[in-house]
């Protein structure tokens, strides 16, 4: 029989590590456990010891790894959640070699308020509810010109992104504990999202793939931290940027790593001495390509069902950025290109793709034909299984096709036959940008029938 010391409170990511802010009013609890203690029993004991009502609150158990383990890991390693019997057993095993306390986070079941939100809502953050995530119209134009000055009142909000869609809320170190003066319920702050945003932070010694990669990161940082910078010096061998507000201490200096194109941060002063209102009054970096990167990295997917209005809404909720439909449309196009690549890169990757198909399906017949200028003409693929099965099919081949709606149009044709059981058997497919491609297709079909 062992004893676990449990404390109640809230995990917060501060600077570069996770800290557990203990609710001292609730006190510590000593919970007797053994190897046979089930996860459900543990949860029940915590509910009982802290006198919590299951109908109204959820609890989450977690712990931070011991000092020895943390020395081998990065400082931003998040706390370990306990969600089942196996994870609880791991916690017990670590207890034997290290002094670890069990951290209990309480979440309100009815309106998903954490203790943190309750405290914040009791601390007169009225502007939080008024602004409703609308920071400003960052830039309507691709050149980054800003407009809609009247929304600048919300600039003072340092981003601490919360739960569902990541609304921007003021960063206030919460007092842990329950206040009876809880106001309108806000969504829960997701530690994960906050941690993801913190991953944008820059530090001295950090190396980037290239100068442009560093500049992209800087632009993303300006959007998340709501400021802008001026380039003081920029050559292939040096980049110096500083906060656009005169006299502010924020600055960054980076230069290449030895003879490689990689850029390393040599000097970085991350603290601003300017006022929040002043520094956030300008942001020229929120171009569609940067917003597209932020969208893909921190928000969501780019499936065909995602519309510009979704992008507009989620960026507004997550970063407080207001934009018009066409800006959202361009952002979505950039995000899609980042995820899927461009139409041109798709054609460029075809030889590699065909090679991989042949590697995975030996015996597959492929043909990629380009014109004298190396431009794509047509592509033919017949998988090995289709080639081997083709002689045993009924002697009728059905060819069907569709027009491609991408940037370069073209036609996609597929040939299929029926087996003895009247089931459809695919034989080959081809894509062509020349018209008509049917003759080419028939000749290739003839080829595979002799293989
Ligand atoms: Zn500044």
How does this model look, in words?
The protein has helices at residues 39-49, 67-71, 85-97, 115-121, 126-131, 191-198, 211-225, 276-279, 288-298, 308-319, 325-340, 343-348, 350-360, 384-389, 438-450; strands spanning 2-14, 17-22, 29-33, 57-63, 80-82, 102-108, 136-137, 207-208, 229-235, 238-243, 251-256, 263-269, 321-322, 365-370, 376-382, 398-403, 411-418, 424-432. By secondary structure, it is an alpha+beta fold. The protein has three domains: 2-110, Phosphatidylinositol 3-kinase Catalytic Subunit, Chain A, domain 1 (Ubiquitin-like (UB roll)); 196-340, no CATH class; 347-450, no CATH class. The strands form four sheets. Strands 1, 2, 3, 4, 5 and 6 form a six-stranded mixed beta sheet that branches. Strands 8-12-11-10-9 form a five-stranded antiparallel beta sheet. It has a five-stranded antiparallel beta sheet with strand order 14-15-18-17-16, sandwiched between helices. Strand 1 (2-14) and strand 2 form a beta hairpin. Helix 10 crosses helix 11. The radius of gyration is 29 Å and the shape is extended. The structure holds zinc ion (ZN). Zinc ion binds next to loops. Residues 202-265 form the Transposase MuDR plant domain. Pfam families: DBD_Tnp_Mut (PF03108).
């Amino acid at each position: 029989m062992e004893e676990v010391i449990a404390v109640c409170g809230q995990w917060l990511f501060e600077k570069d590590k996770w800290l557990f802010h203990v609710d001292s009013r609730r006190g510590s609890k000593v919970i007797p456990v053994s190897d046979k203690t089930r996860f459900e029993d543990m949860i029940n004991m915590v509910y009982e010891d802290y006198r919590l009502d299951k109908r109204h609150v959820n609890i989450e158990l977690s712990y931070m790894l011991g000092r020895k383990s943390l020395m081998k890991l990065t400082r931003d390693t998040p706390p370990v959640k306990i969600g089942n019997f196996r994870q609880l057993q791991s916690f017990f095993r670590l207890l034997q070699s290290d002094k670890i306390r069990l951290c209990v986070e309480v979440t309100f079941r009815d309106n998903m308020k954490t203790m943190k939100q309750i405290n914040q809502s009791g601390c007169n953050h009225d502007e939080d509810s008024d602004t409703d995530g609308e920071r400003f119209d960052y830039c309507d134009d691709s050149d980054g010109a800003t407009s809609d000055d009247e929304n600048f009142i919300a600039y003072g909000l340092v981003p601490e992104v919360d739960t569902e869609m990541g609304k921007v809320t003021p960063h206030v170190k919460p007092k842990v504990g329950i206040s009876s003066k809880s106001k309108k319920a806000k969504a829960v702050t997701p530690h994960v999202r906050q941690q993801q945003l913190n991953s944008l932070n820059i530090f001295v010694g950090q190396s980037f793939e290239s100068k442009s990669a560093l500049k992209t990161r800087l632009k993303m940082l300006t959007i998340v931290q709501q400021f802008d910078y001026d380039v003081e010096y920029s050559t292939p061998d040096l980049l110096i940027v500083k906060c656009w507000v005169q006299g502010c201490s924020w600055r960054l200096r980076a230069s290449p790593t030895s003879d490689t194109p990689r850029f390393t941060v040599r000097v970085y002063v991350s603290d601003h001495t300017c006022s929040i209102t002043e520094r956030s009054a300008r942001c020229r970096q929120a171009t569609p390509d940067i917003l597209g990167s932020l969208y893909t990295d921190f928000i969501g997917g780019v499936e065909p069902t995602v519309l510009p209005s979704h992008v507009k809404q989620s960026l507004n909720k997550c970063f407080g950025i207001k934009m018009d439909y066409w800006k959202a449309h361009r952002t979505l196009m950039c995000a899609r290109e980042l995820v899927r690549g461009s139409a041109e890169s798709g054609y460029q990757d075809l030889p590699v793709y065909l090679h991989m198909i042949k590697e995975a399906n030996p015996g597959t017949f492929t043909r990629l034909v380009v014109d004298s200028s190396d431009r794509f003409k047509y592509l033919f693929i017949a998988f090995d299984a289709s080639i081997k099965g083709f002689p045993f099919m009924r002697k009728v081949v059905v060819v069907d096709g569709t027009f491609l709606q991408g940037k370069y149009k073209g036609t996609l044709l597929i040939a299929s036959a029926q087996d003895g059981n009247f089931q459809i058997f695919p034989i080959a497919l081809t894509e062509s940008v020349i018209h008509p491609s049917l003759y080419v297709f028939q000749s290739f079909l003839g080829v595979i029938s002799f293989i």
